[in-house]
């Protein structure tokens, strides 16, 4: 058993949990820090699977809400609409992901693509937040969302297939641009992560499970648990943060982080292409 390898899995699990729900791209961070730590998994399954650990933190945090949905689906119009909205928002990225996941992993899972997406996304967040400050949201609560609203968020989520874009960033900003209030867009992004990551994890695990060794499975377990614990911390902190502030600090973080990666690549300080 390689203790150093397990330490790397623990570190990446913590990074995943802390970044999954922030608009800074958890996948992008895993790619960059995975390269820095020289940690690479079969078919990128580790990076996908541990995201489910972070997402289950949302299920735990909103356990009463999810329990209410399970017990009232089919019997309560508001619950039925909530489930329908999740299904509608889930479909666009799921279809595009199934069609192009192989090409995306082959050509875009690299630090340079991530850095570019981080910077572009940061600039978009700055623009959307500035625009948001002069407009009144049309949808104040997740419960008030219509299927049309959910579809727009689902279409925005397609952008998250590009590593470095951020799933939460694309859905939250897409929702805000469409007219969702900041907290409503954030919470819907949380809820939408559950079916998305469950589907992505099981798809990748089933596709690659024959290539797994016992050590691979153990590494996923370590990363999974670390991501769950860190995810709980991140969810609580983000909800508290957005109660009084906006996403501008995260935009600047993306721009600086992406800029550092590109700068070290252009100057030759770090040969990202060889990682």
UniProtKB/TrEMBL annotation:
KW Transmembrane (keyword) present: yes
Keyword annotations of the record: Antibiotic resistance, Cell membrane, Cell shape, Cell wall biogenesis/degradation, Hydrolase, Membrane, Peptidoglycan synthesis, Transmembrane, Transmembrane helix
An annotated Gene Ontology molecular function: undecaprenyl-diphosphatase activity
Origin: domain of life: Bacteria
Subcellular location: Cell membrane
EC assignment: 3.6.1.27
Enzyme type, top EC level: hydrolase
Membrane topology of this protein: Multi-pass membrane protein
InterPro entries: UppP
Segments traversing the membrane: 45-62, 82-101, 107-128, 188-206, 218-239, 251-270
Example of a GO biological process term: cell wall organization
Principal subcellular localisation of the protein: membrane
Reaction catalysis annotation: di-trans,octa-cis-undecaprenyl diphosphate + H2O = di-trans,octa-cis-undecaprenyl phosphate + phosphate + H(+)
Family designation: Belongs to the UppP family.
Other known facts: Bacitracin is thought to be involved in the inhibition of peptidoglycan synthesis by sequestering undecaprenyl diphosphate, thereby reducing the pool of lipid carrier available.
General function of this protein: Catalyzes the dephosphorylation of undecaprenyl diphosphate (UPP). Confers resistance to bacitracin.
Protein name according to UniProt: Undecaprenyl-diphosphatase
Species the sequence originates in: Paralysiella testudinis
């Amino acid at each position: 058993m390689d203790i150093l390898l397990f330490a790397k899995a623990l570190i990446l699990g913590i990074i995943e949990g802390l970044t999954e729900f922030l608009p800074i791209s958890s996948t992008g961070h895993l790619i960059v820090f995975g390269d820095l730590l020289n940690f690479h998994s079969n078919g990128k399954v580790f990076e996908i699977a541990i995201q489910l650990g972070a997402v289950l933190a949302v299920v735990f945090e909103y356990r009463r809400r999810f329990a209410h949905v399970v017990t009232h689906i089919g019997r309560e119009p508001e619950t039925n609409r909530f489930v329908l909205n999740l299904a509608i928002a889930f479909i666009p990225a799921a279809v595009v992901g199934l069609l192009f996941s192989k090409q995306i992993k082959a050509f875009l899972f690299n630090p340079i693509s991530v850095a570019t997406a981080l910077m572009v996304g940061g600039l978009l967040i700055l623009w959307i937040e500035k625009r948001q400050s002069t407009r009144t949201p049309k949808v104040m609560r997740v419960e008030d969302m219509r299927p049309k609203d959910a579809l727009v968020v689902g279409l925005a989520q397609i952008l998250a297939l590009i590593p470095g874009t951020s799933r939460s960033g694309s859905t939250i900003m897409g929702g805000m641009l469409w007219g969702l209030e900041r907290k409503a867009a954030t919470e819907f992004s949380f809820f939408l992560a559950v079916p998305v990551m469950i589907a992505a994890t099981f798809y990748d695990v089933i596709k690659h499970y024959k290539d797994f060794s016992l050590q691979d499975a153990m590494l996923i377990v370590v990363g999974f648990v670390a991501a769950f614990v860190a995810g709980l911390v991140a969810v609580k902190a983000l909800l508290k943060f957005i109660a009084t502030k906006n996403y501008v600090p995260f935009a600047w973080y993306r721009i600086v982080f992406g800029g550092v990666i590109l700068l070290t690549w252009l100057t030759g300080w770090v040969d990202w292409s060889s990682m």
